[in-house]
Amino acid sequence: MFRLSLRSPIQTLRPNAAAAALTSSRLVAYRRFLSQDSKAKIQEAINAKPVVLFMKGTPEFPECGFSRAAIQVLDLQGVDPVKMQTYNVLADSELRQDIKEFSDWPTIPQLYVNGEFVGGCDILLSMHQSGELEKFLNQNQVILPPETETSTA
């Protein structure tokens, strides 16, 4: 009976556990709703082209060494520019965070080929050095065909 009167003023101002749980569950539901919307947009972007790279900057002006390296590797491999789409995560802070959650990969750049997450810069470089990337890109038919030499007679 006297418990309420014995509470300190700080305890009465502090939200009780039930109210805190209700508030946090509303926030989680709200975040989950936004996250689902973002996930749908990301999935749509990934499905739009055979090769999708989420990077910092643009292919012409990469704003990070890892993004620059990823673009250089894809260029060396001969990826068809018509089949590739890049997204600058620095232009959209929500995308920058959501793509990391989507792939469960903490770093940028992130490469997707035919909807499959390949990895970041370190994985691209490793696959490139081992020859695995060339095979993978050929299997997915995203490399430009070699130029045929025309003989002049």
Automatic annotation (TrEMBL):
InterPro entries: Glutaredoxin, GRX_PICOT-like, Monothiol_GRX-rel, Thioredoxin-like_sf. Transmembrane segments: none annotated. This is Monothiol glutaredoxin-5, mitochondrial. Residues 51-118 form the Glutaredoxin domain. It comes from Marasmius oreades. The keyword Metal-binding applies. GO terms for biological process: [2Fe-2S] cluster assembly. One of its GO terms (molecular function) is 2 iron, 2 sulfur cluster binding. SUPFAM superfamilies: Thioredoxin-like. GO terms for cellular component: mitochondrial matrix. Coiled coil: none annotated. Keywords: 2Fe-2S, Iron, Iron-sulfur, Metal-binding, Redox-active center.
